[in-house]
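**Reference record**
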Amino acid sequence: MVAIINPVAPAPTAQKDDFASLVNLLDRLTHAEVQLAKLQQVLDAQHLETVRGHMPAYKEFQTIIGECQAAISVIAQRNPQWFEEKKTVVTPYGELKQTSSKSLEVADPAITITLIKGAKREADFIKVTETSASKRSKPSATRSWRSSA
């Protein structure tokens, strides 16, 4: 790292050993930056080892979470009566919310629009938009944490 100094402004009190001090400070600065980079490499390596050590548990928990969310979704779809009065079912472990969306996700929007136009059916559709992500109309499991205080 190099400090930028305005060369036009004269030094208020130039001292005889300023240049030697500058060289020494730049030496210390460079040494500290090199040592910090080495320390960062060690920390990065240790972090990766820690992550690798927890990878089996991480994968297991991710699998369990995915399976539970899929099973919860199936159960919620089998029981639409749960959402007739309220859109949320509250349990001691969290909430189950039913959400819906009017959007439609298609595999290839360009081909779909071409087919609609080719069939001369644009008038049958109020609005056609292309989106990269759409919301699902399935119930989804969410966590709601409440403080008892």
